[in-house]
Design brief:
Layout lengths: L8 H11 L16 E7 L19 H5 L4 E7 L7 H10 L12 H4 L8 H7 L2 E6 L9 H8 L3 E3 L9 E2 L2 E2 L1 H13 L6 E7 L26 H25 L5 E7 L7 H8 L8 H6 L2 E8 L6 E7 H11 L6 H12 L3 E2 L2 E4 L4 E3 L6 H18 L16
Parallel strand pairs: 1-7, 1-8, 2-10, 3-4, 3-7
Antiparallel strand pairs: 2-9, 5-6, 8-9, 11-12, 12-13
Length: 400
């Protein structure tokens, strides 16, 4: 990965002068205590209606669709399709983007440093206990090596879950949520808790049949057996999410839950063709980005403003979560918050151009949009590759 155009330390010092001031409590939330923050990156959770119309025998995600009160809700661009969950996880936690890395890269296995500044290190600097939770093997995407460097205090993997609670051959969302609740209930009275979790229930493939898993959802327009299984899993996820949110509605202390899908499912091309008329090839950039669009929501069990977000991207979601929690925004998140106003969504395929009202390739960016993208790339390069001259203001790692 080569330095971006205009990369020099003078540019970084200039940005440090702009974003150096920490704004305490940006929302002015008058909470007596910091909220517990629970992140749910739900495997392959998607809203396929963004691609095209689809008729099913029953509503797919009625609870997710109904959520409004105390909720930020909308759509975000992922940088991956059908696989490479770890890159979505990295974009969320780091605020960085796959837009500036080679196609096919997996950051956890190629580009992670020994002291990666991320949401984890930020939360530890705020005094939180940081917990990683993933109901699968700890070696997946080298998490057993990456998580300790990120600064997680506790890590829970497949062996910590009840392996009798399976859907198909993966731990159910219900069991996964129960483990999160169990850890929440065990926290000490003055413990500030941050949980970063990744589910497994909806993982592909979707062609093998299971006697123990009834496929309650059927696509009515055409025969798509893999889609029937996936959509039935999605429906089961929605029910588990409803129970999970219902539990925290009755918790007195403040809790923020961040929920998003990592990527769309890998289904057969003929199913996607039934939605967009083309399948997975011959797509315009606009049509291609539909395949990278995932739903997200940030919900609190205390009063917060209802917000609809037409488009964002996963690299921005942790900044939105910090702001909604009323926590101080670190310098890099301050930069990202302002960048959102100019570049509301960016991923490995391109970005959304406010000036032109549509998606563009990064190489076609002009004017102010090109300047913002270049500043972002400069900061990301400094974070990931210029470790000797890495900005201590933007990327402080652990200060406690």
């Amino acid at each position: 990965v080569s330095p971006p155009e205009g990369y020099d330390l003078e540019e970084i010092r200039e940005l440090e002068g702009i974003y150096g001031k920490i704004e305490e409590n940006p929302l002015g939330n008058e909470l007596e205590e910091k909220p517990a923050i629970i992140v749910i990156m739900n495997e392959s959770f998607a809203d396929l209606s963004v691609i095209g119309e689809m008729e099913t025998n029953a509503p797919l995600t009625p609870f997710m669709d109904s959520l409004q009160e105390n909720t930020i809700k909308g759509y975000a661009l992922s940088s991956v399709f059908g696989a490479k969950t770890a890159n979505s996880e990295w974009e969320f936690m780091s605020g960085n983007s796959m837009a500036f890395l080679p196609d096919g890269a997996v950051v956890y296995q190629q580009y992670i440093s020994e002291e990666p500044t991320s949401l984890v290190s930020n939360m530890k600097n705020f005094g939180y206990t940081c917990v990683a939770l993933h109901p699968y093997y700890n070696t997946g995407w080298s998490r057993n090596l990456v998580y300790p460097d990120m600064g997680f205090d506790e890590m829970y993997f497949l062996e910590h879950f009840d392996e009798n609670e399976m859907v198909r051959r993966y731990i159910s969302d219900e069991e996964y949520y129960n483990k999160i609740i169990e850890r929440f209930e065990s926290k000490s009275g003055n413990e500030d808790l941050f949980i970063m979790s990744i589910s497994m229930q909806n993982h592909g493939g979707y062609t093998e049949k299971y006697d123990t898993f009834p496929e309650n959802i059927q696509v009515l327009n055409g025969k798509h057996e893999d889609a029937n299984q996936y959509l039935s899993l999605l429906n089961k996820s929605d029910k588990a999410l409803e129970d999970f949110i219902s539990y925290f509605e009755n918790v007195e202390e403040p809790v923020e839950i961040v929920f998003f899908g990592d990527h769309l499912p890998s289904l057969k091309s003929k199913f996607f063709k039934s939605l967009n008329g083309k399948g997975l090839s011959g797509l315009t950039l606009e049509e291609l980005q539909d395949l990278y669009t995932i739903p997200f929501m940030i919900w609190t069990n205390y009063d917060t403003e209802e917000v609809e977000v037409e488009m964002s991207s996963i690299n921005y979601l942790s900044t939105l979560a910090l702001e909604r929690a009323g926590l101080p925004l670190p310098a890099y998140n301050q930069f990202l918050m302002e960048m959102m106003e100019h570049i509301p969504a960016i991923n490995s395929r391109g970005y959304y151009s406010v000036s032109e009202g549509g998606y563009k390739y990064l190489s076609d960016a002009k004017g102010e949009e090109a300047e913002w993208i270049n500043k972002y790339e400069i900061l990301q390069y400094n974070n990931m590759f210029d470790l000797k001259e890495q900005s201590e203001l933007f990327f402080p790692y652990l200060t406690r």
